[in-house]
Every structure is written in structure tokens, then in C-alpha cells.
TrEMBL record:
Gene name for this UniProt entry: asnS
Lineage: Bacteria, Pseudomonadati, Planctomycetota, Planctomycetia, Pirellulales
UniProt source species: Rhodopirellula europaea 6C
All copies of domain Aminoacyl-transfer RNA synthetases class-II family profile, residue ranges: 140-456
Protein name per the record: Asparagine--tRNA ligase
One example GO MF annotation: asparagine-tRNA ligase activity
Superkingdom of origin: Bacteria
SUPFAM superfamilies: Class II aaRS and biotin synthetases, Nucleic acid-binding proteins
Amino acid sequence: MIAPMDWTTIDACRTSTELPRPVEIRGWIRTRRDSKGGFSFLEVNDGTSLGNLQVVAPAELENYAEEIQKLTAGCSVVVKGELVESPAKGQATELHANSVRVIGWCDGETYPLQKKRHSFEKLREWSHLRARTNTLGAVMRVRNRISQSIHRFFDDEGFNYLHTPIITASDCEGAGEMFRVTTLNLEKLAGSNRPFDTKQDFFQKPTHLTVSGQLEAETYATALSRVYTFGPTFRAENSNTSRHLAEFWMVEPEAAFYDLHDNMQLAERFLKRVFSDCLSHCGEDMEFFNERIEKGKIDQLKSVIEKPFEHMTYTDAVERLLACDEKFEYPVEWGTDLQAEHERYLTSVVGGPVILTDYPSSIKPFYMRVSDDGKTVAAMDVLVPGVGEIIGGSQREERLDVLQRRMAEGGLDESEYWWYVDLRRYGTVPHAGFGLGLERAVQYVTGMANIRDVIPFPRTPGNAEF
């Protein structure tokens, strides 16, 4: 029986300054190399850091010939010995083993993670094993750091963590691309002539997986002042691009008594905190991404951290785009949504992050506050260099009559949003919030090209393994 938490992590071993000292490590074999001098070099990793720890296993160990010399990549081991300064280049320490105990053998003939490099596309077929690779392991450590940073930031800002429902009867975005949730036997219904009766379903009404927790978050912001959601969201969009997932995680703060300016300041502080935490807590992994995945990534993140975000209205942005000599794939005109190529150009011209505001009301959802000009809404998109939009948000429409008019213009049935309308009847206040997709943030921080490689188990059209 292995006692919990009585061993030393490899990350602690590799950075230790207390030498020599006895340690016990547990992990998986990455490589084994036998020496003619009567010992074997084992590279062991336990996932706590990018680098491995070299274990020197002498032939005098009782299981040397029977087990140690048969170890292959993927085998799990417990090693006891003395941590000492390493004479080899590129590593500060190594472990001289007194014992090597094999916990789990690995079938070397069928184990898919061989020494050769595999494409990220191929690794997606082995999502249950790909975290053992250097790149995916580093991605998941950074993803963890970003998640921890999000919670700590909003706690420091006085926000309450709110769990909004995964199953909802409301379509926040109004796009209709939602997954239907039902307990009815669809195969049986398909073979009958009976009409689909939602009264016989579990909730007795049409329900779907949520695309956003924003509307529900607004209800609690009007009671607790500041809340944020952080959980899975779902979109039934038949898209196979490198930037889309069917299941993804969203963080959505919502604050009562906030206007658009407050919202922009919160978003800027938020991104600077998250990126700073990644650089300060994931130094080795970030150096890996900087060298192997996207050159200059660290400097790009430092630029976002150090430079004030420039503010620009949508109208000013369109005028700049129309006046420039750049050739865009998509034409630019006032009243159309900006594409990623337009957003990247704007950040390159400014030389840093940009917050675009005051978008045409015709291209934005019903809940965004209509401006005094009647043509625009108090919306914002935060653009970062190299990618474009990373955050979208707005001040919400708090006026009952204006909200009702906007819903009617959008063809929404007010009775289906009766509770949302009630928030404007009973003690309405200005309030604002934004949304950030966790995977988009991880993709930006790491420089990974495909969003499917920054989530443990990607859900995309035609793919729902594991």
C-alpha cells in the first residue's frame, strides 16, 4: 500500500539546493539507456514539471537484470535514493537509486507514444495518453494556472463565484445553435405518427445545453452586486475550424452599478493579472512555448501586461481600416462585424491591445444598452496582438421600455424571458459584464495553433470520444 504524499516531486528534485539528501520519487519512465559501466540511466517524469529527472540505477540492485533492464517508456516506478549534484550538462541534479520498484508495466510494442515526434492531429486520437507528451503536459499546467488565476483575481476584486445552470430554457445569444436536452425516446417517436409533445418531456418544455451563463448571472448581480460564472458552455455550431469547439469553458463576470468604462477597466486588469501569473508561475513551460511553439510569445505577453489598453470606437476603427493600404479578404463597411484580420491589423497599428466600443446595435444582441444616438450600443471587444478579439462584453440594457423594444425588434418572445424582464421592473440598476473563453485564453498564452490541443478532451462535429 502506497502512503499518500510521502514522496518528493520531480519538480522539487530538479530545483533542490539541499544536496545531497535522501528522496523518494514516483513517476513514469520516459527513456532508459544502459551503460557498459554496469548501470542504467532512467529518465523519469511525474508531470509536475517539463523536464525529467535522471535516475542512475546500478547493476548491484537486486532486480536490475530481471526488471530495470526491461523498463520501457510508459512504465510506472517508485525510486528511492540520494539526490546529488549532477556532473552532466543541462541538469542540476540526479538521483542515485538504492531501489527501483516497478508499479505498472507498459506494453512497449503497442504503446503509441514512441520517441519519434507525433503530429498534434495524431495525438488527438490518443487524448487519454497525450498529456504525457512535453507539449500537452505544459499546456495543461498553463491551463491550470490560468484557471487558478481567474478565481483568485475575482476573489480579490470582491466577486462571488456563481454556478449557473448547464441546462437552460433561454437562448442568450439568439443564434439558435443549441444542443437539445430530452429524455424522450426519439427512436420510438421517429417511428410513430405522433407529434412531438414537449409536455411529456422531463422539464415539460424545450430545454438546451447553455451557451452562456450571462442572463442568469445578471439575476444574482442585482442581489450580490458582483458575481462571476466559470463553467462549461455548449454550442451546436457545425464548424471544424482551429478556433471552434462544441464544448468549451467560459468565465463571465457581472457587476451591478458598473458602466462600460468600469467594464473596460476590469477587463484590462483581468488580462494583465492572468498573463502575469502565467509568466511568473510557469516560467519553464512558457520558455518551452516561446522556443518550440511561437517565437516571441513571452515578449508579446509582456507587451500586453505593460502597455495601457488603447480605446477606440467601432466607427473610428472602420475609418482607419478604410483609409489604410492593407488588402483584406473581407471588405470593410460600417454596419458589418469586424473579422479577425481587421482586428489583428488594428492591434499591429496601435502596437498593443485595443478595446473597441460602441458597435452598431444591428449586429449586437438585445441585452446590450442602446446609446443616446440610437444607432450603437455600449458594447466592447478587447483585442490583443496576434489574435484579435479575446474578450467580448457590454453594459447591459437596464431600461424596461428599451429592453422590451429591442426584444420585439429581434423577434423574441418576451414571455420566455419574463424573469429577465422582471429584473428591470424591480430595482433596476446599470450593470455590465463580459465573457472570456478559457480555451481561447490558453491558446493565446501558449501559442498553440489549434484550440483542440488546449482542452483535455475536445468535442467537435463528429468527435465525442472518451
